[in-house]
Amino acid sequence: MKAKKCSIGWASIDITPDRPVFVAGQMYPRISTVVLEPLTATAVVFEQEGEQFTLLSADVVNFNVDVIRRVRDKLAGVQGLDPMRVAFCATHTHSGPATLFGGDGLNDLDRQYLADLKGKLADVAVAAFRSAEPGRLETTWTEAPSLAHNRRVKGEDGAWGNEWWDPDGKHPGYVDPSVMLVGVRRPDGCRRTGLRTGRPAAAAGRRVPVVPGHALV
Known about the structure:
about 30% strand, about 220 residues, 16 strands, alpha+beta
């Protein structure tokens, strides 16, 4: 059977805050003090026989409804790009700007970051759409044993709970180290890998770092 022709576009953009921001993901308010790794937003657009799908992923804890609505509104004016066929995926980093909670902890700098983020998300989706060219997806598997650990442990009282750190690798629970790698093969033979892995991090002393989440397409 002859494979159906597919066009695939890919683009990435930096969304690292250039100022201290409220960091979501812990049980207490935190303000970022240092950037350990850049945060990115990435878009992949697939088109085949008149059907279209866009995956928009970003190193944030979550997307609220307002962000999704505003980004789709910005994309509505782009001819050929269907904003209702854009799926939003957050890497759920707990060491990135607060995009989920709209509480009293946010200040004007946080709100400005959110406003800028909506524009960058729309820009990267458009860039991916306009870069689409023939290609096919390829996948393979590898292992990353240090990427995650099982945080569920049984206490002395017999109750199960979370133990967030396991530097010595002593937690007995099962961990699947496998990671799927996804790439795009172009007709000229060139291949671009589309999966990037990061690492989780949390505050160390008074340093509140900004780092990406576990995976980004």
